[in-house]
Design brief:
- The protein is of the alpha/beta class.
- It has 16 helices and five strands.
- It has helices spanning about 5-15, 30-45, 60-65, 70-75, 95-105, 125-130, 145-155, 165-175, 180-190, 200-210, 215-225, 230-240, 245-265, 280-290, 290-310, 315-335; strands at about 20-25, 55-60, 85-90, 110-115, 135-140.
- A five-stranded parallel beta sheet has the order 2-3-4-1-5, sandwiched between helices.
- Helix 13 (about 245-265) runs parallel beside helix 16 (about 315-335).
- The radius of gyration is 25 Å and the shape is globular.
- The protein starts with a helix and ends with a helix.
Length: about 350
């Protein structure tokens, strides 16, 4: 059975012990690992490793010894409590060994937990779990955490549920950071707020947020937003030498100008801006205005589509540089009007 994103959140928090097996797969290994850790902690409770209620093996080890998983599922433990047999980095080559363990599974056996990388819909391993009535397959995608998930992460860290501007800032931070860094930041905020009875506020989050998010890419975007056309080429050359790609620069620019747009449209005066360029970005947003920023975002969207077009023949970096120059000129014209 395949679970959707909403049902998956509930399952990770409270796994169904009556299921024979669970497959968690996705391209981002960190996201998969975090979900697996959450589910195993909820399923097994504390002390599972010490009490030998969790058996671990890799997909390569299972290929060498195909009976290892079935033995772990049927093994009788010395300690009471739920048990699990965990297979990490599995692939289609492990399908038959996993099938044998699942087909012989009975209530009271260790639950089979399998993690894998990105699996296509035609994957044998993925089909095995999706087509089984007694198993669950959960795909983990690169979408940022939603409000409910953020609230759960905050609660797990011992913080009260954030409200209003604080929640908006956390949602913005979740979009800017990868899952592991976001959780570490929440833990840092929890330590920062220890002993403080006041509700979590935007200033607390800003004090603990990473000092730099994609700072290297932001170097050229600050130059673009300030209208310095003569400095765009040299900064881009440095980024290219560091491995930057046209699509990556375009995505970074869209993120940057969307942030400026939100600042320009923010009626409360508390925009979600982090990092060393915060004050400068707020000034840029006021100088550009929402209408002109919409034009910049339209320019970047067209450039992104051109980069991804199969008919595109022009060098990608040249397309991005020309787009940046056009945006910088528009920004400079805006400054002249002011």
């Amino acid at each position: 059975m395949k679970l959707n994103a909403r049902d998956a959140l509930g399952f990770f928090a409270k796994p169904d012990t009556g299921r024979a097996g669970v497959l968690i797969y996705g391209a981002d290994a960190m996201r998969v690992a975090l979900r697996r850790q959450q589910m195993l902690a909820a399923l097994l409770g504390a002390g599972a490793d010490e009490e030998m209620r969790l058996s671990r093996m890799t997909g390569s080890e299972l290929r060498t010894d195909s009976a290892r998983l079935l033995d772990a599922v049927k093994a009788i433990g010395f300690f009471p409590g739920a048990r699990a047999a965990f297979v990490e980095d599995a692939g289609d080559a492990n399908t038959e060994a996993v099938r044998a363990a699942l087909s012989d599974w009975q209530p009271g056996d260790a639950q089979v937990v399998v993690t894998a990388g990105a699996l296509k819909p035609a994957s044998k391993l993925r089909k095995l779990f999706e087509e089984s009535r007694n198993c669950v397959a959960i795909g983990i995608y690169d979408d940022p955490p939603g409000r409910a998930e953020i609230e759960q992460i905050v609660s797990d860290a011992g913080l009260a549920r954030p409200e209003g501007a604080a929640m908006a800032l956390l949602e913005e931070l979740a979009r800017a950071l990868d899952p592991g860094d976001f959780r570490q930041t929440i833990e840092k905020i929890a330590l920062y707020k220890r002993g403080d009875p006041e509700p979590l506020g935007p200033e607390d989050i800003a004090a603990c947020a990473p000092s730099s998010i994609e700072a290297d890419v932001d170097d050229v975007l600050v130059v673009v937003a300030d209208g310095h056309t003569d400095r765009i080429g040299p900064v881009m050359q440095r980024l290219v030498s560091q491995g930057a790609t046209p699509v990556g620069l375009c995505i970074g620019a869209m993120r940057y100008f969307r942030t400026l747009y939100r600042v320009a449209c923010d009626p409360g005066g508390r925009p979600a801006v982090f990092g060393p360029n915060r004050d400068r970005m707020m000034s840029q947003a006021r100088r550009w205005g929402a209408e002109r920023l919409e034009g910049a975002l339209s320019e970047l969207t067209d450039t992104d589509l051109a980069l991804r077009s199969a008919a595109q023949t022009a060098p990608g970096m040249a397309l991005v540089e020309r787009a940046f120059i056009r945006i910088a000129v528009a920004g400079r014209q805006r400054q002249g009007e002011n």
